[in-house]
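Journal club side-thread
Mid-discussion, someone asked how the predicted structure for our own chain would compare to the paper's figures. Pasting it here so we can look after the session.
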Amino acid sequence: MVTTKRTIADKFKDLLKNVRTQNDATVSSRRRAITRRLNQDFWDSYSDTDHTRYIGSYGRGTEIKGASDVDLMARLPSSLYSRYDSYLGNGQSALLQAVRDSIRKTYSSTDVGGDGQVIVVRFSDGIKFEVVPAFIRTDGSYTYPDSNAGGSWKKMDPIAEIEAIDLANARHNKKVKHLARMARAWRTKNNVSMSGLLIDTLAYDFMAGWEYNDKSFVYYDWMTRDFLKYLYEQDRDRRYWYAPGSNQRVYRSGVFEYKAGQAYRESLEAIECEAQGREYSANEHWKNIFGSVFTG
């Protein structure tokens, strides 16, 4: 029996299928339940869709299978901001407590806690929602509470980040999100210290200048190689980058450049093996980069 050699395009298409999230229906159902409860308590509404939005990696469409965190922004009426801002004590803590008490009415047997800026809803299957209450600002960004150090209000602009990623992804034929998901697989396999927003920021920056950003899946091996080289060559003394859309600072959580260099060398070996027809060896090198989600 003759075995047909699989192309690079086939291999990377399968990789991207294998890393896609698989619990979207469960996540959506829980979002609707949380949204309905918050709307009842804060908006006098029974809508299960209004006033909440996925943000973070899930909102940007760059999350992968196996990740458990879902970031959900819950917009509240502006009148509540005035009420909690006028507290003599920590109004931010009081607001977070009010939102936590509301969610507990729906998920009374679920672990619902807080970490100073969000309400954390932990489910028994490992999925964790982080709900951030927020107030819209005149410029379209949002104010959210931080109860740490006596309490303060902070600014975020997650919708601008989502829109910037979406636009670049459309401009480059889906490669921004594809690359961000592939980079998450590499992060998981190799225990790399990088936040999801930093991965997305660097994927966005890289793709804007990559010479093959108009090419198809046939170039995904080179895309992997060149992105890992791009990461490896980042300045290790650099503390932060600027997120697309919001321009907020995205701080590094550790040194990722060394592991990027290791993976870059693996990619060179993989590409060389592919060129020589040594498919098994090539697949093993790709698996060292991406883990078992790369099936070859």
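Post-session note: The CA atoms of residues 77 and 183 lie 38 Å apart.
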